[in-house]
Design brief:
Length: about 400
């Protein structure tokens, strides 16, 4: 019998190649799963931040079983309920976080005692009510405390940007723009508010690397209409860049993030916002500016024009109805606008009104100066969201 060596060689070659493909293919799958194990395991966010190489990568400093983000770290951003936060530290099953920006400016109160302060009232009555409670722990809010400020690196820490109120036990302190921690006796200064809250440690890690452009997120919520938005979300409507400042029964109140620059006075007769006098800013906004918008998408709503002396609630004592208005004292994000009028009048002088200067500080200004204008209006709840995620670099787009 004659052997067919060619056929035998082909058969052996096929068996050998099959073995090599099977062997190396299985090893490839094994090593891929090993290298990507952290992406397939069902981690909580705390587990993800404190496990193995992530603990080193995140530069977390351990102190008495608490993990602190230290100095000017760049990878502790977390996006929650429409606002960007920075993780301060991790304690067992709790994430302590602070808003990345000052979300408003207010006077502290009559004294520096936090439990009696106007700040505490605003945080509990306004700020907390705008949060998604799903991930919030114990429904608590406070200010940054002196001890934590020391643990995260003080002047070298990531919380420094503008002057804002902080605490030493139950007493007010101030962190200035250069990071100095100071005691003040002037509790009627307007300073920034940066809330500190606790998030549940059972929150699952979904995605993100903690950078400002790719923060940790807490959910994959689908946003379909304006009713799904949160205070703090960025959006674009009629090619106008906006930010949500309030949710109410009427709709979503928004403010432009880019101003009409230095062309208009507030009024030459009164510091009360009105829409009937042709030389007032209120008339311009509700008769000319409104042409850039679709009136069918808007809500004719209340704009609060009460005086402000110490209590933010006093601004609610008087109102006017219109389609377009301006921000008032106590509104979100007034620290992000410059050289502009607010809608809150001076209680002592009918020719002056509260404004924001070029350093984002509140002051009183004559009503007939030409300043920037940041229009604000209320969109209906049922407008469609067609794309975006609500972050500054990827705003929600409102469309048909």
């Amino acid at each position: 019998m004659k052997f067919d060596f060619r056929r035998i060689f082909v058969s052996i070659s096929i068996l050998f190649l099959s073995f090599m493909v099977g062997f190396y293919g299985s090893r490839l799958v094994y090593y891929y799963k090993t290298e990507n194990k952290k992406n397939t395991k069902d981690y909580t966010l705390i587990e993800y931040l404190t496990t193995g190489e992530n603990l080193i990568k995140n530069n977390l400093m351990e102190d008495n079983n608490k993990y602190y983000f230290y100095k000017n770290t760049k990878n502790n951003y977390i996006y929650y309920s429409g606002l960007m936060y920075r993780i301060l530290y991790i304690d067992k099953d709790t994430l302590y976080v602070i808003t990345d920006e000052c979300i408003t400016n207010l006077k502290y109160g009559e004294t520096g005692t936090y439990s009696d302060s106007e700040i505490k009232k605003w945080l509990e009555e306004i700020y907390l009510n705008n949060l998604d409670k799903t991930y919030l722990k114990n429904n608590e809010v406070k200010l940054l405390d002196r001890e934590t400020y020391g643990k995260i690196g003080e002047k070298e820490s990531f919380v420094i940007n503008k002057d804002f109120w902080v605490l030493d036990n139950n007493e007010a302190l101030v962190i200035t723009e250069d990071g100095s921690l100071t005691k003040t006796s002037n509790y009627k200064d307007f300073l920034g508010i940066k809330p500190v809250i606790k998030l549940k440690g059972t929150t699952k890690y979904i995605k993100g690397n903690g950078s400002i452009n790719n923060p940790y997120i807490l959910d994959n919520k689908t946003t379909n209409t304006t009713n799904d938005l949160y205070v703090g979300n960025y959006l674009k409507y009629k090619n106008i860049d906006l930010r949500v400042i309030e949710k109410n029964n009427d709709g979503i109140k928004v403010v432009t993030t880019n101003p009409i620059e230095g062309k208009y006075i507030f009024s030459n007769i009164s510091n009360l916002y009105k829409t009937s006098y042709k030389k007032d800013i209120g008339y311009y906004l509700n008769n000319e500016y409104i042409k850039l918008l679709d009136k069918n998408d808007l809500v004719n709503t209340k704009w609060y024009i009460g005086n402000y002396e110490l209590e933010y609630k006093n601004t609610l004592n008087k109102n006017i109805n219109s389609y377009v208005g301006l921000l008032k004292i106590g509104d979100y994000f007034i620290t992000n606008i410059k050289n502009t009028y607010l809608i809150t009048p001076d209680i002592n002088n009918t020719n002056s009104i509260y404004t924001i200067n070029d350093k984002n500080a509140l002051y009183l200004q004559s009503i007939n100066e030409k300043l920037n204008i940041y229009p604000s209006f209320t969109l209906k709840n049922n407008l469609n969201i067609v794309s975006g995620n609500g972050l500054k670099n990827n705003p929600y787009i409102i469309g048909d």
